[in-house]
Amino acid sequence: MSGLKVSGLSGYEVVDSVGARVxxxxxxxxxxxxxxxxxxxxxxxxxxxxxxxxxxxLDRADRQVEMILPSDLIIAEAETEMAAN
Length: 85
Known about the structure:
Elements: E1 13-15, E2 21-30, E3 36-43, E4 48-52, E5 56-59, E6 64-67, H1 71-84
Parallel strand pairs: 1-6
Antiparallel strand pairs: 1-2, 2-3, 3-4, 5-6
């Protein structure tokens, strides 16, 4: 998804590298040109993760964002963000 100009993805299901649901998209953060940089995810286990867009693939037909990471790394990112705040 990196570099794409996308909008309206809030609520899309997010799945990990094996296809297991991990949460849903809260929003997509973009740079000043409107290109996707980060995907913010509300995790099913609680918390929020901010993942780099180059780690995600958009599947508009299924209304899904597929992460190329396993769920434990996605959850670890959320825990890191919570500890920093």
